[in-house]
Amino acid sequence: MQNNTTKTQVIIIGAGPTGLSMAAQLLRYGIDFIIIEKNEQTTHLSKALVVQARTLEIFQELGIAEKAIAIGQVTTAMNLFYKGKQKTAVDIQGLGEGMSQFPFALSLEQSKTEKLLVDHLSENGKKIQWGSAFSHFEQGENGVSAFYTDDKGNEQKIEAQYLVGCDGASSLVRHQLGFAFEGDTDPKLFYVADVKLSSPVINKNELFMFMIKKGFILFFPMEGKGHYRVIGILPDHKDTDPPVTFISIKNYIKQEVVCPLDFEEVLWFSSYKVHSRKAGSFQGERCFIAGDAAHIHTPAGGQGMNTGIQDAYNLAWKMAFVLKGEVNPGVLETYTSERMGNAKHLLQTTDRIFDMMAGTNPVWNFIRLNLFPPLSGIITKYDFIKKRIFPLLSQIGIAYPDSDLTLKSSIGKIKAGMRMPYFVFADGKQIYDYLSKPAFKILFFGDKNGSTINDTSIKIASHNFTEIPRTLFGNETDFYILLRPDNHISYIGKDACICRQLLNRINIG
Ligand SMILES: Cc1cc2nc3c(=O)[nH]c(=O)nc-3n(C[C@H](O)[C@H](O)[C@H](O)COP(=O)(O)OP(=O)(O)OC[C@H]3O[C@@H](n4cnc5c(N)ncnc54)[C@H](O)[C@@H]3O)c2cc1C
Predict the structure, then answer these.
(1) Ligand 1 atom nearest to 296, measured from its CA
(2) Which residue has the CA at smallest separation from atom 30 of ligand 1?
(3) Tens of pLDDT along 136-163?
(4) Protein residue whose Cα sits closest to atom 18 of ligand 1
(5) In order of start, what are the domains of the chain with their CATH numbers?
(6) Cβ count near 408 (within 10 Å)
(7) Helices 383-394, 53-62: inter-axial angle, 10-degree rounding
Protein backbone atom coordinates (compact mmCIF):
# COMPACT_ATOMS: atom_id res chain seq x y z
CA MET A 1 0.00 0.00 0.00
CA GLN A 2 1.35 3.43 -0.97
CA ASN A 3 1.52 5.68 2.08
CA ASN A 4 3.12 9.08 2.46
CA THR A 5 5.09 11.17 0.09
CA THR A 6 7.92 13.03 1.82
CA LYS A 7 9.83 15.89 0.25
CA THR A 8 13.48 16.71 0.66
CA GLN A 9 16.38 18.09 -1.39
CA VAL A 10 18.56 14.98 -1.74
CA ILE A 11 17.74 11.28 -1.34
CA ILE A 12 20.63 9.06 -0.27
CA ILE A 13 20.25 5.31 -0.80
CA GLY A 14 22.46 3.24 1.52
CA ALA A 15 24.06 4.03 4.89
CA GLY A 16 27.49 2.48 4.38
CA PRO A 17 30.57 4.72 4.71
CA THR A 18 29.79 6.48 1.40
CA GLY A 19 26.12 7.24 2.11
CA LEU A 20 26.87 8.34 5.68
CA SER A 21 29.66 10.61 4.39
CA MET A 22 27.34 12.09 1.78
CA ALA A 23 24.84 12.83 4.56
CA ALA A 24 27.53 14.35 6.83
CA GLN A 25 28.80 16.56 4.00
CA LEU A 26 25.32 17.78 2.98
CA LEU A 27 24.74 18.61 6.64
CA ARG A 28 27.83 20.89 6.57
CA TYR A 29 26.26 22.83 3.72
CA GLY A 30 22.82 23.03 5.33
CA ILE A 31 21.16 20.89 2.63
CA ASP A 32 18.13 18.81 3.59
CA PHE A 33 18.32 15.08 2.85
CA ILE A 34 16.76 11.72 3.66
CA ILE A 35 19.00 8.66 3.96
CA ILE A 36 17.46 5.20 3.76
CA GLU A 37 19.13 1.89 4.55
CA LYS A 38 17.71 -1.61 4.15
CA ASN A 39 19.58 -3.02 7.19
CA GLU A 40 18.43 -2.35 10.75
CA GLN A 41 21.78 -0.84 11.83
CA THR A 42 25.40 -0.27 10.78
CA THR A 43 27.55 -3.27 9.85
CA HIS A 44 28.96 -5.30 12.74
CA LEU A 45 31.75 -6.59 10.45
CA SER A 46 35.21 -5.09 10.60
CA LYS A 47 35.57 -4.94 6.74
CA ALA A 48 37.70 -1.88 5.79
CA LEU A 49 40.42 -1.47 8.39
CA VAL A 50 42.45 1.43 7.02
CA VAL A 51 41.44 5.07 7.37
CA GLN A 52 43.81 7.07 5.19
CA ALA A 53 45.19 10.56 5.89
CA ARG A 54 42.91 12.33 3.39
CA THR A 55 39.88 10.75 5.05
CA LEU A 56 41.14 11.95 8.43
CA GLU A 57 41.51 15.47 7.00
CA ILE A 58 37.87 15.26 5.88
CA PHE A 59 36.90 13.91 9.33
CA GLN A 60 38.75 16.86 10.89
CA GLU A 61 36.41 19.24 9.08
CA LEU A 62 33.48 17.27 10.49
CA GLY A 63 35.04 17.43 13.98
CA ILE A 64 35.40 13.62 14.32
CA ALA A 65 39.09 13.03 13.49
CA GLU A 66 40.20 13.12 17.13
CA LYS A 67 37.48 10.64 18.08
CA ALA A 68 38.56 8.30 15.25
CA ILE A 69 42.20 8.47 16.37
CA ALA A 70 41.23 7.87 19.99
CA ILE A 71 39.47 4.59 19.17
CA GLY A 72 41.82 3.45 16.36
CA GLN A 73 45.52 2.65 16.22
CA VAL A 74 48.28 4.23 14.19
CA THR A 75 49.97 1.57 12.06
CA THR A 76 53.63 1.77 13.03
CA ALA A 77 55.63 -0.90 11.22
CA MET A 78 55.48 -3.65 8.62
CA ASN A 79 57.49 -6.86 9.17
CA LEU A 80 58.26 -9.04 6.17
CA PHE A 81 58.93 -12.76 6.62
CA TYR A 82 59.91 -15.56 4.28
CA LYS A 83 60.15 -19.22 5.37
CA GLY A 84 59.77 -18.23 9.01
CA LYS A 85 62.66 -15.73 8.90
CA GLN A 86 62.28 -11.96 9.16
CA LYS A 87 63.57 -10.33 5.97
CA THR A 88 62.98 -6.72 6.90
CA ALA A 89 61.07 -4.40 9.25
CA VAL A 90 59.79 -1.21 7.69
CA ASP A 91 59.05 1.69 10.02
CA ILE A 92 55.94 3.33 8.56
CA GLN A 93 55.07 5.61 11.47
CA GLY A 94 55.13 9.22 10.35
CA LEU A 95 55.63 8.17 6.70
CA GLY A 96 53.80 11.34 5.64
CA GLU A 97 55.55 13.75 8.04
CA GLY A 98 55.26 17.29 6.65
CA MET A 99 52.66 16.25 4.07
CA SER A 100 49.53 16.05 6.20
CA GLN A 101 48.35 16.87 9.67
CA PHE A 102 47.79 13.09 9.85
CA PRO A 103 51.06 11.60 8.55
CA PHE A 104 49.98 7.98 9.07
CA ALA A 105 47.36 5.37 8.24
CA LEU A 106 44.86 4.72 11.01
CA SER A 107 43.68 1.22 11.71
CA LEU A 108 39.98 1.42 12.54
CA GLU A 109 37.31 -1.16 11.85
CA GLN A 110 34.65 -0.11 9.33
CA SER A 111 31.93 -0.84 11.90
CA LYS A 112 33.48 1.84 14.16
CA THR A 113 33.98 4.32 11.32
CA GLU A 114 30.31 3.94 10.37
CA LYS A 115 29.23 4.34 14.01
CA LEU A 116 31.25 7.58 14.29
CA LEU A 117 29.43 8.99 11.26
CA VAL A 118 26.01 7.83 12.51
CA ASP A 119 26.66 9.43 15.93
CA HIS A 120 27.80 12.65 14.24
CA LEU A 121 24.57 12.77 12.22
CA SER A 122 22.42 11.99 15.23
CA GLU A 123 24.18 14.63 17.40
CA ASN A 124 23.17 17.07 14.67
CA GLY A 125 19.55 15.95 14.68
CA LYS A 126 19.72 13.71 11.60
CA LYS A 127 18.42 10.15 11.69
CA ILE A 128 18.91 7.30 9.26
CA GLN A 129 15.74 5.53 8.12
CA TRP A 130 16.80 1.98 8.98
CA GLY A 131 15.00 -1.09 7.66
CA SER A 132 13.96 0.76 4.51
CA ALA A 133 14.57 -1.04 1.22
CA PHE A 134 14.73 1.12 -1.90
CA SER A 135 13.07 -0.46 -4.95
CA HIS A 136 13.24 2.04 -7.82
CA PHE A 137 13.28 5.68 -8.86
CA GLU A 138 11.47 7.84 -11.41
CA GLN A 139 13.06 11.04 -12.66
CA GLY A 140 11.95 13.97 -14.77
CA GLU A 141 13.00 17.50 -15.63
CA ASN A 142 12.05 18.93 -12.25
CA GLY A 143 12.94 16.20 -9.80
CA VAL A 144 13.35 12.58 -8.85
CA SER A 145 11.18 10.25 -6.77
CA ALA A 146 12.44 7.23 -4.83
CA PHE A 147 10.15 4.34 -3.86
CA TYR A 148 10.89 2.11 -0.91
CA THR A 149 9.35 -0.21 1.68
CA ASP A 150 9.76 1.09 5.22
CA ASP A 151 10.50 -0.89 8.41
CA LYS A 152 6.76 -1.53 8.93
CA GLY A 153 6.31 -2.91 5.41
CA ASN A 154 4.61 0.21 4.04
CA GLU A 155 5.36 1.50 0.54
CA GLN A 156 6.79 5.01 0.73
CA LYS A 157 7.78 7.70 -1.73
CA ILE A 158 10.31 10.52 -1.40
CA GLU A 159 10.46 13.46 -3.82
CA ALA A 160 13.69 15.43 -4.18
CA GLN A 161 15.92 17.36 -6.55
CA TYR A 162 18.68 14.74 -6.63
CA LEU A 163 19.28 11.10 -5.69
CA VAL A 164 22.62 9.53 -4.77
CA GLY A 165 22.97 5.75 -4.95
CA CYS A 166 25.48 4.74 -2.27
CA ASP A 167 24.03 1.24 -2.30
CA GLY A 168 27.19 -0.79 -2.69
CA ALA A 169 28.61 -3.10 -5.34
CA SER A 170 25.23 -4.61 -6.35
CA SER A 171 23.67 -1.14 -6.61
CA LEU A 172 20.04 -1.09 -7.77
CA VAL A 173 20.47 2.58 -8.68
CA ARG A 174 23.33 1.69 -11.05
CA HIS A 175 21.28 -1.15 -12.55
CA GLN A 176 18.28 1.10 -13.10
CA LEU A 177 20.49 3.73 -14.72
CA GLY A 178 21.60 0.99 -17.12
CA PHE A 179 25.31 1.57 -16.48
CA ALA A 180 27.67 -1.29 -17.28
CA PHE A 181 30.04 -2.34 -14.48
CA GLU A 182 33.12 -3.10 -16.53
CA GLY A 183 36.22 -4.89 -15.29
CA ASP A 184 37.41 -8.26 -14.05
CA THR A 185 36.98 -10.77 -11.30
CA ASP A 186 40.13 -12.56 -10.16
CA PRO A 187 39.63 -16.35 -10.37
CA LYS A 188 41.64 -16.94 -7.16
CA LEU A 189 39.82 -17.35 -3.84
CA PHE A 190 40.72 -14.99 -0.98
CA TYR A 191 39.96 -15.35 2.68
CA VAL A 192 39.69 -12.93 5.56
CA ALA A 193 39.50 -13.82 9.24
CA ASP A 194 39.42 -11.78 12.43
CA VAL A 195 41.19 -13.89 15.02
CA LYS A 196 42.59 -13.89 18.51
CA LEU A 197 46.00 -15.58 18.50
CA SER A 198 49.09 -16.13 20.54
CA SER A 199 52.57 -16.24 19.06
CA PRO A 200 56.07 -15.27 20.16
CA VAL A 201 56.56 -13.62 16.74
CA ILE A 202 53.20 -12.07 15.81
CA ASN A 203 52.83 -10.24 19.08
CA LYS A 204 53.12 -6.52 18.39
CA ASN A 205 50.88 -3.72 17.25
CA GLU A 206 52.45 -4.00 13.79
CA LEU A 207 51.76 -5.49 10.37
CA PHE A 208 53.19 -8.95 9.70
CA MET A 209 53.43 -10.08 6.12
CA PHE A 210 54.50 -13.61 5.27
CA MET A 211 55.61 -13.97 1.67
CA ILE A 212 54.84 -17.43 0.35
CA LYS A 213 55.34 -19.11 -3.02
CA LYS A 214 51.68 -18.72 -3.87
CA GLY A 215 50.92 -15.21 -2.64
CA PHE A 216 51.03 -13.87 0.90
CA ILE A 217 49.50 -14.11 4.36
CA LEU A 218 49.00 -10.79 6.08
CA PHE A 219 48.36 -10.22 9.79
CA PHE A 220 46.94 -6.78 10.37
CA PRO A 221 46.81 -5.57 14.01
CA MET A 222 43.39 -4.79 15.45
CA GLU A 223 42.30 -3.37 18.80
CA GLY A 224 43.19 -5.57 21.80
CA LYS A 225 45.99 -8.02 22.60
CA GLY A 226 46.49 -10.81 20.08
CA HIS A 227 43.68 -9.50 17.85
CA TYR A 228 44.57 -9.62 14.13
CA ARG A 229 42.93 -9.55 10.71
CA VAL A 230 44.36 -12.40 8.62
CA ILE A 231 44.16 -12.00 4.85
CA GLY A 232 45.41 -14.54 2.33
CA ILE A 233 44.88 -16.31 -0.92
CA LEU A 234 43.94 -19.88 -1.89
CA PRO A 235 45.20 -20.09 -5.48
CA ASP A 236 44.41 -23.78 -5.96
CA HIS A 237 40.82 -23.65 -4.76
CA LYS A 238 38.26 -24.55 -7.45
CA ASP A 239 34.63 -23.41 -7.57
CA THR A 240 33.57 -27.09 -7.41
CA ASP A 241 35.53 -27.70 -4.14
CA PRO A 242 33.60 -27.70 -0.81
CA PRO A 243 33.19 -24.25 0.80
CA VAL A 244 36.23 -23.05 2.72
CA THR A 245 36.03 -22.67 6.49
CA PHE A 246 38.68 -21.37 8.86
CA ILE A 247 39.10 -24.87 10.32
CA SER A 248 39.81 -26.25 6.85
CA ILE A 249 42.67 -23.79 6.21
CA LYS A 250 44.01 -23.27 9.75
CA ASN A 251 46.80 -25.83 9.42
CA TYR A 252 47.71 -24.60 5.93
CA ILE A 253 48.19 -21.06 7.37
CA LYS A 254 50.35 -22.33 10.24
CA GLN A 255 52.44 -24.43 7.87
CA GLU A 256 53.05 -21.51 5.44
CA VAL A 257 53.80 -19.00 8.21
CA VAL A 258 56.35 -21.44 9.68
CA CYS A 259 56.82 -19.49 12.94
CA PRO A 260 54.99 -20.68 16.12
CA LEU A 261 51.37 -19.60 16.14
CA ASP A 262 48.18 -20.67 17.95
CA PHE A 263 44.73 -19.52 16.93
CA GLU A 264 42.60 -19.05 20.05
CA GLU A 265 39.35 -17.66 18.66
CA VAL A 266 37.85 -16.89 15.25
CA LEU A 267 35.58 -13.85 15.40
CA TRP A 268 34.74 -13.63 11.69
CA PHE A 269 35.65 -15.61 8.61
CA SER A 270 34.76 -15.07 5.00
CA SER A 271 36.08 -16.12 1.62
CA TYR A 272 35.57 -14.01 -1.48
CA LYS A 273 36.57 -13.31 -5.05
CA VAL A 274 38.30 -10.00 -5.74
CA HIS A 275 36.67 -7.67 -8.27
CA SER A 276 38.06 -4.66 -10.11
CA ARG A 277 35.19 -2.87 -11.79
CA LYS A 278 34.02 0.62 -12.70
CA ALA A 279 30.65 1.94 -13.92
CA GLY A 280 30.44 3.54 -17.38
CA SER A 281 29.23 6.84 -15.86
CA PHE A 282 28.56 8.12 -12.36
CA GLN A 283 25.61 10.36 -13.30
CA GLY A 284 22.30 9.80 -15.08
CA GLU A 285 20.54 13.18 -15.12
CA ARG A 286 19.40 13.75 -11.51
CA CYS A 287 20.75 10.43 -10.19
CA PHE A 288 24.33 9.78 -9.12
CA ILE A 289 26.25 6.77 -7.89
CA ALA A 290 29.16 6.86 -5.44
CA GLY A 291 31.48 4.49 -3.57
CA ASP A 292 31.29 0.75 -4.29
CA ALA A 293 28.17 1.38 -6.39
CA ALA A 294 30.44 3.20 -8.87
CA HIS A 295 33.74 1.31 -8.57
CA ILE A 296 35.17 -1.65 -6.68
CA HIS A 297 38.83 -2.41 -6.09
CA THR A 298 41.15 -5.13 -5.00
CA PRO A 299 41.87 -4.84 -1.26
CA ALA A 300 45.48 -3.80 -1.99
CA GLY A 301 46.39 -0.56 -0.27
CA GLY A 302 43.13 -0.22 1.70
CA GLN A 303 41.57 2.26 -0.72
CA GLY A 304 37.94 1.19 -1.29
CA MET A 305 36.14 2.80 1.64
CA ASN A 306 38.36 5.88 1.53
CA THR A 307 37.57 6.40 -2.14
CA GLY A 308 33.83 6.27 -1.43
CA ILE A 309 34.21 8.86 1.32
CA GLN A 310 36.07 11.12 -1.10
CA ASP A 311 33.43 10.60 -3.81
CA ALA A 312 30.88 11.94 -1.37
CA TYR A 313 33.17 14.84 -0.45
CA ASN A 314 33.54 15.76 -4.13
CA LEU A 315 29.85 15.44 -5.02
CA ALA A 316 28.32 17.05 -1.92
CA TRP A 317 29.75 20.55 -2.38
CA LYS A 318 28.76 20.65 -6.05
CA MET A 319 25.21 19.50 -5.27
CA ALA A 320 24.95 21.95 -2.37
CA PHE A 321 26.09 24.94 -4.42
CA VAL A 322 23.67 24.03 -7.25
CA LEU A 323 20.79 23.62 -4.78
CA LYS A 324 21.63 26.95 -3.14
CA GLY A 325 21.54 28.56 -6.59
CA GLU A 326 25.17 29.69 -6.49
CA VAL A 327 26.58 27.59 -9.34
CA ASN A 328 25.00 26.20 -12.48
CA PRO A 329 24.02 22.49 -12.71
CA GLY A 330 26.74 21.89 -15.34
CA VAL A 331 29.24 21.83 -12.44
CA LEU A 332 27.74 18.48 -11.39
CA GLU A 333 29.12 16.90 -14.56
CA THR A 334 32.63 17.40 -13.21
CA TYR A 335 31.81 14.82 -10.53
CA THR A 336 31.91 12.00 -13.08
CA SER A 337 34.95 13.32 -14.94
CA GLU A 338 36.97 13.95 -11.78
CA ARG A 339 36.05 10.88 -9.80
CA MET A 340 35.95 8.47 -12.74
CA GLY A 341 39.49 9.53 -13.70
CA ASN A 342 40.52 8.89 -10.12
CA ALA A 343 38.78 5.48 -10.00
CA LYS A 344 40.48 4.45 -13.26
CA HIS A 345 43.91 5.47 -11.99
CA LEU A 346 43.29 3.76 -8.65
CA LEU A 347 42.18 0.53 -10.33
CA GLN A 348 45.40 0.50 -12.36
CA THR A 349 47.58 1.13 -9.28
CA THR A 350 45.81 -1.27 -6.92
CA ASP A 351 45.75 -3.93 -9.64
CA ARG A 352 49.52 -3.62 -10.11
CA ILE A 353 50.20 -3.87 -6.36
CA PHE A 354 47.72 -6.71 -6.14
CA ASP A 355 49.34 -8.64 -9.03
CA MET A 356 52.64 -8.43 -7.23
CA MET A 357 51.22 -9.58 -3.89
CA ALA A 358 48.85 -12.26 -5.18
CA GLY A 359 50.33 -13.25 -8.55
CA THR A 360 51.48 -16.87 -8.61
CA ASN A 361 53.47 -16.99 -11.86
CA PRO A 362 57.31 -17.22 -11.67
CA VAL A 363 57.88 -13.53 -12.49
CA TRP A 364 55.62 -12.25 -9.70
CA ASN A 365 57.05 -14.88 -7.36
CA PHE A 366 60.58 -13.64 -8.09
CA ILE A 367 59.62 -9.98 -7.59
CA ARG A 368 57.68 -10.69 -4.39
CA LEU A 369 60.18 -13.02 -2.78
CA ASN A 370 63.46 -11.46 -3.93
CA LEU A 371 63.00 -7.81 -4.86
CA PHE A 372 60.14 -6.58 -2.70
CA PRO A 373 61.65 -7.24 0.79
CA PRO A 374 64.91 -5.27 0.25
CA LEU A 375 63.13 -2.51 -1.69
CA SER A 376 60.45 -2.04 0.97
CA GLY A 377 63.25 -1.69 3.52
CA ILE A 378 64.49 1.51 1.87
CA ILE A 379 61.09 3.18 1.48
CA THR A 380 61.31 5.05 4.73
CA LYS A 381 65.01 5.90 4.40
CA TYR A 382 64.69 8.29 1.46
CA ASP A 383 62.56 11.41 1.47
CA PHE A 384 61.96 11.40 -2.28
CA ILE A 385 60.48 7.88 -2.06
CA LYS A 386 58.26 8.80 0.89
CA LYS A 387 57.06 11.83 -1.08
CA ARG A 388 55.86 9.51 -3.85
CA ILE A 389 54.48 6.64 -1.76
CA PHE A 390 52.58 8.52 0.95
CA PRO A 391 50.50 10.77 -1.36
CA LEU A 392 49.53 7.70 -3.38
CA LEU A 393 48.46 5.53 -0.45
CA SER A 394 46.96 8.26 1.71
CA GLN A 395 44.95 9.77 -1.19
CA ILE A 396 46.32 13.26 -0.47
CA GLY A 397 47.94 13.07 -3.91
CA ILE A 398 44.65 12.91 -5.82
CA ALA A 399 44.47 15.84 -8.24
CA TYR A 400 42.09 17.05 -10.93
CA PRO A 401 44.42 18.79 -13.42
CA ASP A 402 42.15 18.24 -16.44
CA SER A 403 38.88 19.23 -14.80
CA ASP A 404 36.68 22.00 -16.20
CA LEU A 405 37.04 23.58 -12.74
CA THR A 406 40.83 23.79 -13.08
CA LEU A 407 42.69 26.59 -14.87
CA LYS A 408 46.13 25.33 -15.91
CA SER A 409 48.54 27.31 -13.73
CA SER A 410 51.35 26.77 -11.25
CA ILE A 411 53.67 28.46 -8.77
CA GLY A 412 56.82 26.66 -7.67
CA LYS A 413 55.98 22.96 -7.24
CA ILE A 414 52.27 23.55 -6.80
CA LYS A 415 49.90 23.11 -9.71
CA ALA A 416 46.19 23.82 -10.15
CA GLY A 417 44.09 20.68 -9.61
CA MET A 418 46.13 19.54 -6.58
CA ARG A 419 44.79 19.43 -3.04
CA MET A 420 46.03 22.50 -1.15
CA PRO A 421 49.44 21.43 0.19
CA TYR A 422 49.76 21.11 3.93
CA PHE A 423 52.28 23.31 5.74
CA VAL A 424 52.81 24.91 9.12
CA PHE A 425 53.40 28.64 9.67
CA ALA A 426 56.11 29.97 11.99
CA ASP A 427 53.48 30.66 14.69
CA GLY A 428 52.60 26.94 14.73
CA LYS A 429 49.27 27.36 12.93
CA GLN A 430 48.62 25.02 10.00
CA ILE A 431 47.25 26.22 6.69
CA TYR A 432 44.30 23.85 7.13
CA ASP A 433 43.30 25.76 10.28
CA TYR A 434 42.14 28.47 7.86
CA LEU A 435 40.44 26.17 5.37
CA SER A 436 37.72 24.34 7.30
CA LYS A 437 34.88 26.59 6.08
CA PRO A 438 32.74 24.82 3.43
CA ALA A 439 33.16 27.67 0.93
CA PHE A 440 35.23 28.85 -2.03
CA LYS A 441 38.35 30.57 -0.73
CA ILE A 442 40.79 33.00 -2.19
CA LEU A 443 44.21 33.01 -0.55
CA PHE A 444 46.68 35.81 -1.25
CA PHE A 445 50.37 35.27 -0.47
CA GLY A 446 52.40 38.50 -0.36
CA ASP A 447 53.22 41.67 1.54
CA LYS A 448 50.40 43.90 0.32
CA ASN A 449 46.69 43.10 0.46
CA GLY A 450 45.29 41.00 -2.39
CA SER A 451 42.30 42.29 -4.34
CA THR A 452 38.97 41.01 -3.05
CA ILE A 453 36.51 39.25 -5.29
CA ASN A 454 32.99 40.20 -4.31
CA ASP A 455 31.36 40.78 -7.67
CA THR A 456 29.93 37.26 -8.14
CA SER A 457 26.98 35.73 -6.28
CA ILE A 458 29.27 32.96 -5.03
CA LYS A 459 30.31 33.73 -1.47
CA ILE A 460 34.08 33.63 -1.10
CA ALA A 461 36.19 33.57 2.04
CA SER A 462 39.43 35.60 1.70
CA HIS A 463 42.72 35.21 3.56
CA ASN A 464 45.99 37.14 3.21
CA PHE A 465 49.29 35.54 4.23
CA THR A 466 52.62 37.32 4.41
CA GLU A 467 54.60 34.18 5.19
CA ILE A 468 55.29 32.06 2.08
CA PRO A 469 56.73 28.54 2.41
CA ARG A 470 59.65 28.58 -0.05
CA THR A 471 59.94 24.78 -0.32
CA LEU A 472 56.52 24.74 -1.96
CA PHE A 473 56.24 28.06 -3.80
CA GLY A 474 59.88 28.90 -4.61
CA ASN A 475 60.71 32.61 -4.48
CA GLU A 476 57.39 33.81 -5.88
CA THR A 477 55.36 36.41 -4.03
CA ASP A 478 52.09 38.27 -4.55
CA PHE A 479 50.08 35.38 -5.94
CA TYR A 480 46.56 34.04 -5.47
CA ILE A 481 45.23 30.56 -4.86
CA LEU A 482 41.56 29.99 -5.65
CA LEU A 483 40.33 27.00 -3.67
CA ARG A 484 37.13 25.06 -4.24
CA PRO A 485 35.13 24.10 -1.14
CA ASP A 486 36.92 20.70 -1.12
CA ASN A 487 40.25 22.56 -0.92
CA HIS A 488 41.46 21.57 -4.38
CA ILE A 489 43.20 24.38 -6.26
CA SER A 490 41.23 25.86 -9.17
CA TYR A 491 43.83 28.49 -9.98
CA ILE A 492 47.25 29.46 -8.66
CA GLY A 493 48.90 32.55 -10.12
CA LYS A 494 49.18 36.32 -10.11
CA ASP A 495 46.00 37.31 -11.93
CA ALA A 496 42.93 37.89 -9.75
CA CYS A 497 40.86 38.57 -12.91
CA ILE A 498 41.30 34.95 -13.97
CA CYS A 499 39.72 33.79 -10.70
CA ARG A 500 36.85 36.17 -11.40
CA GLN A 501 36.42 34.70 -14.91
CA LEU A 502 36.25 31.13 -13.60
CA LEU A 503 33.75 32.05 -10.90
CA ASN A 504 31.62 33.92 -13.44
CA ARG A 505 31.69 30.91 -15.76
CA ILE A 506 30.27 28.54 -13.14
CA ASN A 507 28.09 31.20 -11.50
CA ILE A 508 24.34 30.94 -11.99
CA GLY A 509 23.50 34.60 -12.43
C1 LIG B 1 37.08 -7.93 3.84
C2 LIG B 1 37.10 -6.54 3.35
C3 LIG B 1 38.18 -5.74 3.66
C4 LIG B 1 38.23 -4.44 3.20
N5 LIG B 1 39.31 -3.64 3.55
C6 LIG B 1 39.33 -2.34 3.18
C7 LIG B 1 40.32 -1.43 3.68
O8 LIG B 1 41.21 -1.81 4.46
N9 LIG B 1 40.26 -0.13 3.29
C10 LIG B 1 39.26 0.32 2.47
O11 LIG B 1 39.24 1.53 2.16
N12 LIG B 1 38.30 -0.50 1.99
C13 LIG B 1 38.29 -1.81 2.33
N14 LIG B 1 37.27 -2.64 1.94
C15 LIG B 1 36.23 -2.12 1.05
C16 LIG B 1 35.13 -1.38 1.82
O17 LIG B 1 34.54 -2.23 2.78
C18 LIG B 1 34.09 -0.89 0.83
O19 LIG B 1 34.77 -0.19 -0.19
C20 LIG B 1 33.09 0.04 1.52
O21 LIG B 1 32.26 -0.67 2.39
C22 LIG B 1 32.21 0.71 0.48
O23 LIG B 1 31.32 1.55 1.11
P24 LIG B 1 29.95 1.92 0.41
O25 LIG B 1 29.23 2.76 1.40
O26 LIG B 1 30.21 2.48 -0.93
O27 LIG B 1 29.21 0.54 0.18
P28 LIG B 1 28.69 -0.51 1.27
O29 LIG B 1 29.57 -0.52 2.45
O30 LIG B 1 28.46 -1.77 0.53
O31 LIG B 1 27.30 0.11 1.73
C32 LIG B 1 26.16 0.08 0.90
C33 LIG B 1 24.94 0.17 1.80
O34 LIG B 1 23.78 0.27 0.97
C35 LIG B 1 22.77 -0.56 1.53
N36 LIG B 1 21.84 -0.94 0.46
C37 LIG B 1 22.11 -1.70 -0.61
N38 LIG B 1 20.99 -1.83 -1.37
C39 LIG B 1 20.02 -1.11 -0.75
C40 LIG B 1 18.64 -0.87 -1.03
N41 LIG B 1 18.03 -1.40 -2.10
N42 LIG B 1 17.92 -0.09 -0.19
C43 LIG B 1 18.52 0.46 0.92
N44 LIG B 1 19.81 0.24 1.25
C45 LIG B 1 20.56 -0.53 0.42
C46 LIG B 1 23.56 -1.75 2.09
O47 LIG B 1 22.79 -2.46 3.06
C48 LIG B 1 24.77 -1.09 2.66
O49 LIG B 1 24.60 -0.71 4.01
C50 LIG B 1 37.18 -3.93 2.38
C51 LIG B 1 36.08 -4.75 2.09
C52 LIG B 1 36.02 -6.04 2.57
C53 LIG B 1 34.81 -6.89 2.26
Answers:
(1) 19
(2) 168
(3) 999 999 999 999 999 999 999 999 999 9
(4) 305
(5) 2-71+107-182+277-351 (3.50.50.60), 410-506 (3.40.30.120)
(6) 11
(7) 60
